[in-house]
Amino acid sequence: MKKILYIGILSCTMVLSGCDDLLDVKPGSELTDDNFWRSEADFKGACNRLYYDLDGWSNDTRADEFVAASANSTSNGTRTVPGTSSDWTDPYDRIFTANNIIEKGSASPLVENIRNRWIAEAYFFRAYQYFTLIKRYGDVPLILKTFASVYDPELKKERTPREEVIQQCYKDLEFAIQNLPKRTQLPTGELDRRRVSVSSALGMIVRIGLYEGTFQKYHNVNNGANANGHFDKAIAAFELLKAEGHDLYPNFNEVFSYKNEANTNLEIVFGKAYGENDFSTVTTGHTYTRNLEGSNALTRNVIDMFLYADGLPIDKTTLKVPVETSYNNVVGLDQSGSSLPNGIGQRDPRLLKTIWTINDPLENDAFMGWSITGKGKYYPFDSQRPKGYPCKKGFFGSLWEKSVGNRDFTDKIIIRYAEMLISYAEALYERNGSITDAQLEATVNKLRLRVGFNVKLTNAFVNANGLNMLDEIRRERTVELMTEGLRYDDLIRWKTAEKALPTDLVGPICLAGELQNPSLINTLAPRITDASGKVNGVFVYGQANTYVIEFKNTRSFNPQRDYLYPIPTFEIAQSDFNIKQNPGWGED
Description:
Layout: H1 5-11, E1 24-25, E2 31-32, H2 40-52, E3 66-68, H3 73-76, H4 86-106, H5 112-137, H6 162-179, H7 198-218, H8 227-242, E4 268-272, E5 286-287, H9 292-295, E6 296-298, H10 300-303, E7 389-390, E8 407-408, E9 412-416, H11 417-432, H12 437-442, H13 444-450, H14 459-464, H15 469-480, H16 487-494, H17 497-500, E10 505-509, H18 521-524, E11 534-535, E12 538-539, E13 546-550, H19 569-574
Antiparallel strand pairs: 1-2, 3-6, 4-9, 5-8, 6-7, 10-13, 11-12
């Protein structure tokens, strides 16, 4: 941890636009900033660093959801123990920043309620970063102070039990709830509209409580003794959050659009602001495509989780297309974009809002169109893109750019109310072993109603069709939150990664007549299923002409090892080996 000590100290109070002079760094290892922390502007400037360090737009390819041009080593089980890793150092750097604000700010002569309002932001982000570490590594050293010297013995601290770290996260977030402004009290500036609020802290407790409750339950941590306590935290936090006035944005297509810049989007519980003017060095723009349609694509593995129009899954419905003859059949359309007869293939409307199709209804839309990006008409298996389903959800389109230079200033949603609704439903079921129809109506069916999917999930429907309620709640979570970076964490906490990851990752139907360059079929042929769903005599998927992105024999998942990340060897050595390696990674 010594490696990041200096980074953590020196970055912790820097406002990002020309304020190195605010710090007086003495020779050696000591830092004094006695002339800082005297105004609200000082606190706000220091806290800006915490927002800048939030991860920006990216796509998570660790699960069975997204694939990139090259295989992800976490997803396919080929990662090794690193010497160093930003997965460890970045959160600790940000924790040290938060610790400095908490410690130095608490001694400020500023009026207590103003001081605590800004210290509460640091508490929020400290909890956010510790939760990130817990998800990756399990037990981690809990550091709640700054370091005046590289000889501080806590730099060699052993790992703290995860339950103790999680309880500290709750404590930090509860302080934040007591001292942060409410959503309705936030200013409207480009950065300030996305500052953390009471809602943000409550949302984090919902997320942490559900994650930790299910992780401890299904991984048998302390025999699951503490699981219900975490579910109770999540349930109680949601019920308080609901009173903060959040709601679903009416139009699913626009949830992630430029329209979320306004405070009127009540679905945003916590987000990362991007601004064209205010704090431009903090809220720098991002490329408008987010690399969603260019570098990553969805798999058939998760596409098949979308229900059919009768509310049934692919293995129970009578609406499944028996023999697919077009890429578009997956959403119930023919190649021209027209609906198949008799409702065959019709799906949950969120599917067509999630992936692009041939002759897509939105291809020439003034805001979202594929063609207006300069890429021309969409064809599957374009050589410039991964061989899966290109993502429409969150696609910005060229007219959503807010400045020149291929930049966009659309905010990134980190927690949205839709996640809170389905998390509440899951926590209720996990806690009680059941869920009422009224609770389903207020959560799952509220999400369905927004997109016009009018088949309701009820206890009677589940029983009549031989379904499992927990599976259906998890399915709803997966399809609603698809592409939002939560799938891998869900597989880990449910302890289902050992089934979902070491399997064939498949893509769309691949037909020469639907390719921009029909001769490309010759290159793709070795990965395309035959009439019996096989490739080289091995069954892969129950449709002919299905493209295989990654074969099962190239993927693995060791359940005794891979549910936690390997700790970097540098961190173990620098702790004088007080930090022990996670099981299965070579230093048990």
